[in-house]
Structure formats: structure tokens, C-alpha cells
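Here is an idea for our session: we take a single protein and study its fold together. To get us started, please write out a protein record for me. Once you have written the record down, we can walk along the chain together.
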Amino acid sequence: QVQLVESGGGLVQAGGSLRLSCAASGRTFSSYTMGWFRQAPGKEREFVAAIRWSGGNTDYADSVKGRFTISRDNAKNTVYLQMNSLEPEDTAVYYCAAKLRLAYGVRYDYRYDSWGQGTQVTVSS
């Protein structure tokens, strides 16, 4: 397991951008698949994006594809979520998640065993 801390959330207008960061502990960060999930009030937690330990494969929810980009900097033990063209529907608490060498099922929250505390993203219309 790794300890995860999200940051970078805030209030932005529709069409604006934010970059979320997730700082992780541990020397084996480069061996972990990292995911981003979000949960809006009254809704279930949903998958946003994931990047595998190799860095060669990424996955995105259809609702964010083309607008969001997930990346990682293993030297800094950090994963990022660049969020562009934000919409009010993107308003949610965003969570960072990790699982050692997870290759399949990256869209399902139950596949991960480490979670951050979440960071609030609010998009005004």
C-alpha cells in the first residue's frame, strides 16, 4: 500500500482548467497503477482515468476523454490529472487511488486498495 494525498481542487468557471496532483509515499510508486475517481452529491463514485505502472497505457471515461489527461512523474512520486474545458457536470470530489501492477479492471473502484482523502472540484456555469 501507499499513502496518497490529493491537491489542486478549487472553484472554476465553465470552460476553465485545473490540474490535480496526487502525491504518493513509498519507493515502489513506479510499480503502481494509479487511478482517478470522482463522486458527486447523490451519485455513486465513478471512474475518471487511470495510468498503468509502465506508463504506456492510459484509460479514460467517455465523459472526460479529450478533455482530461492523466500523467505521472515517478521521480516525484506524483500522478496528475489535467482537466480542461471543465463543465458543471464535472463538479465532484476527486479521489486518487493506487494498486500494485493492476493491468485489468482499472475502471472499477474495488480493484484498488489505497485511496486519498479527496479534493473538491466545483465548476460554475
The chain has a mean pLDDT of 95.
